[in-house]
Amino acid sequence: GAVVSQHPSRVICKSGTSVKIECRSLDFQATTMFWYRQFPKQSLMLMATSNEGSKATYEQGVEKDKFLINHASLTLSTLTVTSAHPEDSSFYICSARDVAGTYEKLFFGSGTQLSVL
Amino acid sequence: GESVGLHLPTLSVQEGDNSIINCAYSNSASDYFIWYKQESGKGPQFIIDIRSNMDKRQGQRVTVLLNKTVKHLSLQIAATQPGDSAVYFCAEKAPGKLIFGQGTTLQVKP
Questions:
Q1: In angstroms, what CA-CA distances link B25 with A36, A117, B90?
Q2: DSSP class of residue A103?
Q3: Which of A41, A46, A91 sits opposite B8 (nearest CB)?
Q4: Does residue B83 sit in helix, strand or coil?
């Protein structure tokens, strides 16, 4: 079945540093990728939608200069948390939709636990 | 609507019993819904979906019911097993994206 690979699975960093999270579709072309954030015991909150070759669309309240998203190819999207602070500590999850664009074929990565000290 | 800031309710059931997990959605125009299962430290896994032109859909040990009148979804799990312990989310399709509901933690007691 289709697989979305997300790396790293866990990262600990110092306050003020930047962290890059990768999301790859391994056996299909993902024209659209979604980035979610999830705090402990809460639901997934959509942060942004990225389409290959174009600028990401950010949800209201999400700082685009803080959370940089790049979707340069049909198989790779990256999320960079710039100048991370403790309040950015969260579980970040990507998902990818295939070229058919159906939500039945929306696959999720395994998530990245970010801890900012 | 989105449930940011709300902690997940918990449903505790005995192994072998049936579980019913409920979800309210916000947009009466939503035409597609999905139930996901999320285990600790992992991404969501697709369980079952339903379109708005249906009110019931069955899978293996799972059934989804849709009540459009009151904007309510439910997920029924038959003969709940310890491996069913997880957080369950409903999601509704909005233009260009999926919006996740509040979620429910299911605990299965042996």
A1: 19, 37, 9
A2: G
A3: A41
A4: helix
Helix (H, G, I), strand (E, B) or coil at B86: strand
Strand pairing partners for A67?
A: A81
Between chains, do A43 and B97 touch, taking CB under 8 Å as contact? no
Radius of gyration of chain A (CA): 13
Q: Which residue has the tokens 């015991």?
A: A41
Q: Which residues of A touch B98 (CB under 8 A)?
A: 34, 46, 103, 106
Cis before B95? omega within 30: no
Distance from C-alpha of A68 to C-alpha of B87, rounded to nearest angstrom: 29
- Under a CB-based contact definition with an 8 Å cutoff, are residues A98 and A92 in contact? no
pLDDT tens sequence across A61-117:
999 999 999 998 999 999 999 999 999 999 999 999 876 666 666 899 999 999 999
